[in-house]
Amino acid sequence: MNPGANLGEARYLILADGHFGPESSKTATSAVRYLPERVAAVIDARHAGKTVRDVLGFGGDTPVVASVEEGLAAGPTALLIGIAPVGGELPEVWREIVRQTLSAGLDLVSGLHAFLGDDPELARLARQHGATIHDLRRTPAGLPVATGRAASTAALRVLTVGTDCNVGKMTAGLEIRHALQARGVRVGFAATGQTGILVEGWGTAVDAVKADFIAGAAEELVLRAAREGDVVLVEGQGSLTHPGYSGVTLGLMHGSLPDAMILCHPASRTRIFNEQGLYDWVPLPSLSEAVGLYEGIMRPVHPSRVVGIALNTRELTEAGAREAIATAERETGLPATDPVRFGADRLAEELMAARGSRLAARA
Amino acid sequence: MNPGANLGEARYLILADGHFGPESSKTATSAVRYLPERVAAVIDARHAGKTVRDVLGFGGDTPVVASVEEGLAAGPTALLIGIAPVGGELPEVWREIVRQTLSAGLDLVSGLHAFLGDDPELARLARQHGATIHDLRRTPAGLPVATGRAASTAALRVLTVGTDCNVGKMTAGLEIRHALQARGVRVGFAATGQTGILVEGWGTAVDAVKADFIAGAAEELVLRAAREGDVVLVEGQGSLTHPGYSGVTLGLMHGSLPDAMILCHPASRTRIFNEQGLYDWVPLPSLSEAVGLYEGIMRPVHPSRVVGIALNTRELTEAGAREAIATAERETGLPATDPVRFGADRLAEELMAARGSRLAARA
């Protein structure tokens, strides 16, 4: 089953207790950004009484509340688990909240590695109260091993890559799509993570498939997205130098065989980010080193170019952001922007040029 | 459970019908090479009446037979599925053979992705006849995401890497272990694939874990193997440029954080191998390109050197093999050998020197 099916009408109460914030609750933050009219309230006792905009800097007057009771008053139809902790298990302290919302008849939407629909207690509660549990990371059966079929698509394939996890690869893709669509380009979007699937309504969490099928899952997504677009934007995952997740990154590259890559980078980070500092021993590559790594590893299989830089400048002033963008352009010779702050027009223009060159080369 | 547990006493009837051969039945071939006294017979109707040595060039007088009936006459205690087809499913034509052997009370040992112990019909037959089904690829619960813990081990960590799948990465590791042990070195072996697990009796099939946990699974294996050795040999998987399996390769690298790598290469191959030719579009990198790729991708995380070349020269004459080895040494400036044909002494010496330098650097 498509794990995103039937999510189009849900109104979410988002569980992000103790974690709601722009760095620490990607799923919650993305739901607020891309499905704002469908977020009823966010649970985080630390910020109770504030609005979502107070915490994130965007997202309007949606309330942040301290308890399930207050959240239910906002009229949600589903509880959305708003973070993806290392290891993927449901924190025990949150189980009580899940129990309460299932008992109140709310559906449950989760991107955790551990499938909540397989949890006997939660499954029983859902049955008793007529609720449905949607596990966004549940992957399709019968995935193939990749064999390069993505290269047979006529669409320009574009993959967002990054110097770290949680830097805006999905967001860059969605903002680029917006800018391309504004120029009349048909775009297919291949969602590869739980948040992208939540936003798009379809996709496969490539980090949850068996390792032999990472690239095969990506290949299938590209073939489907190519039916919907002349450009296919593939949501990237992880980083080639992330000790925990690099396998997902490379598999995704070889499955989607991008013609072009957009390199996403957090302007203020110097080391791989982790709330517990577990990766402080791994410095981030410079932008030019990262371009070399990504292009170098693709060259023997399907040569691909990094054609633009998407900087995440959230922690900088506007002047600081413009300076970081100018520095990135000087260092790499590539167009750069912060697609959230300044729009993705420069990247969209670059991709339209790349698509034009490719069509010309084929003609 | 350790999937290799209790396999130490089994005597195998190996199912390799239509596929028994040095290129096309890695599990069967490795069982013959490393567990010769425990192979009762091999099923492949194409070669019925021959001995294993007739087909492989080694392995003694063990018979190749056409049918289960003939195989049972050789006194096996378990049926071993001898190949790992693309996609990992049990070919339908083999199911009847599995039914017959389970019904005869033989255990079943399988490295397929699809767990035969979860197949209702086969599980029922096993119960009825007192047989046990061992799925070598069944992975442990609760694997962590890798965080670099492998680097904390005092052992010299050595990973076999390759320019392709099925080139002898496990075999090179086992031959190097033999040569190191002959020099009095304590060696731990981290088996990462179904065949290595079969031979060693423990390990984790890293290609079968969920993608986020590839490196974490490798990290756990290294920590355990380091308790048994001053050198840890990690069985490599896939290739950085294999479109289907590269994610497994890179995850394994970042989980095991090797100090040294041995590059394995099939001397006669120029393209990624597949029986159906599915990867003919991907040329193999040259040895020096491959050294650059493997060292380059490790550099930002844990600098590692390729210290030797293990050539697979099976398709060459002895003179041709010696010439290929000399050419490899000239091209790379590294010691090279075919560890199966000429032993792994040169690689063992190089690793002892690497371990000596590392100890000296720490002192």
Walk me through the structure.
Two copies of one chain form a homodimer. Chain A is an alpha/beta fold. Chain A contains 13 helices and twelve strands. Chain A folds into two domains: about 10-135, NAD(P)-binding Rossmann-like Domain (Rossmann fold, 3-Layer(aba) Sandwich); about 150-360, P-loop containing nucleotide triphosphate hydrolases (Rossmann fold, 3-Layer(aba) Sandwich), CATH 3.40.50. In chain A, about 35% of the residues lie in helices and about 15% in strands. In chain A, helix 4 runs parallel beside helix 5 (about 120-130) and helix 8 (about 215-225) packs across helix 9 (about 245-255). Chain A is globular, with a radius of gyration of 20 Å. The two termini of chain A are about 40 Å apart. Mean pLDDT of chain A is about 95; it is low at about 1-5. Chains A and B meet through helix 8, helix 9 and helix 10 of A and helix 8, helix 9 and helix 10 of B.
List the helices and strands and how they pair.
Two copies of one chain form a homodimer.
Chain A: E1 12-15, H1 26-34, E2 39-43, H2 52-56, E3 64-65, H3 68-72, E4 78-81, H4 92-103, E5 107-110, H5 120-129, E6 133-135, E7 156-162, H6 169-182, E8 187-190, H7 194-200, H8 214-225, E9 231-234, H9 246-256, E10 260-266, H10 287-298, E11 305-312, H11 318-332, E12 336-337, H12 339-342, H13 345-362
Parallel strand pairs in A: 1-2, 1-4, 2-3, 4-5, 5-6, 7-9, 7-10, 8-9, 10-11, 11-12
